[in-house]
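Hi everyone, sorry if this is the wrong subforum. Our group has a chain we'd like a structural model of before ordering constructs, and none of us has done structure prediction before. Sequence below.
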Amino acid sequence: AQVPAVKKNYLRYTPYADAPVNRLFEEKKLLEHRVLETQTLETQWFENQGGKFVVHTLPVEAQMAPVYGMLHADLSGDGLPDLFLAGNDSGFDPETYDVDASNGCLLKGDGKGNYSWVSNRETGIWAASELRDLVWLKQASGKNVLILASNRSQMRAFCGE
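Answer:
Right subforum, don't worry. Here is the predicted structure as tokens:
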């Protein structure tokens, strides 16, 4: 629970997870707020087709951890846009698990909106920390650098062509 008033009443995850929402909050408070729902927790991208959005779910390798940063650029040098995803989170209570299975995720684009995973061994990028932001910079020399910013660690740079 992230709400202090709720957190003090539910010290363990299971009772909180099992409680109906009307037991967590007073009815008066519930009526004051708008309820939002989600149908999926998959990492996706949305394609704007003239005002109509089409949802595309990313490959399973992009589903291993929460994504906090995403870069859309030609990272593979083939002239087509790719995606690089950054994430992980270890800020949960001790009894819950960290969600930190990502080492950074490169998804190679085919120019038609499809993406396929490129292994970290192939990319040479191993970024297992809590990544929060990233940028793709072109140096004066013409070489590219991927800079990754972490929540609890130093920034890292990976040089490309």
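For your construct planning: The chain has five helices and nine strands. The chain has one domain: 44-159.
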